[in-house]
Amino acid sequence: MYENRMQLRFGSISQNESFARTVAAAFAAQLNPTIEELTDIRTAVSEAVTNAIIHGYENNPNRAVELRCSICGDMLTIVVADEGKGIEDVMLAMQPFYTSVPSLERSGMGFAVMEAFMDDVRVESAPGQGTKVTMQKHIAVVGCDG
């Protein structure tokens, strides 16, 4: 089966969060997703990129976030990766309302949001080595009877 893929690296600045979600949605558009599915994709990518910028790189604009997208059949896979400080306890970090930086007054719902909008979310991380978030979404092919 043919797989289409793309890869992008961009600066770790908050302005690039909207750029990343737009690129991911544009790539996903070839599967003809619904508006709701596109919104889900944009939201999940936004959360993953924001986590990389704020938590992985602690807002260091001199670092780069990587976005990789692939389509195989009707499965969209999105990877957001950083080479930042990493996560000490991934299971704890994925708990709703957990935040490693309470002074930022963030809700700690990033991973929960990603899990709500995507079919599968996997997080790989190690302290000092960065974090890789892999998200997958099945895009149903909408046909017509005729």
What is shown here, in short?
With 146 residues, the protein is of the alpha+beta class. It has helices spanning 15-28, 35-56, 90-93, 110-117; strands spanning 3-11, 64-72, 75-82, 120-126, 130-138.
What does this structure look like?
With 146 residues, the chain is α+β, with helices and mostly antiparallel strands. The chain has one domain (3-138): Histidine kinase-like ATPase, C-terminal domain (Heat Shock Protein 90, 2-Layer Sandwich), CATH 3.30.565. It is built from four helices and five strands, in the order βααββααββ. The chain has a five-stranded antiparallel β-sheet, with helices on one face. A hairpin with a 3-residue loop joins strand 4 and strand 5 (130-138). Helix 1 runs antiparallel to helix 2 (35-56) and helix 2 (35-56) runs antiparallel to helix 4.
Query: What is the third-level CATH name, the topology?
Result: Heat Shock Protein 90
The biggest sheet, with number of strands, parallel, antiparallel or mixed sense and barrel status, is: 5 strands, antiparallel
By CATH, the superfamily comes out as: Histidine kinase-like ATPase, C-terminal domain
Overall structural class, as computed from helix and strand content, comes to: alpha+beta
| Distance from first to last alpha carbon | 27 Å
CATH architecture: 2-Layer Sandwich
Indicate the CATH class. Alpha Beta
Low confidence ranges: none
Total number of domains: 1
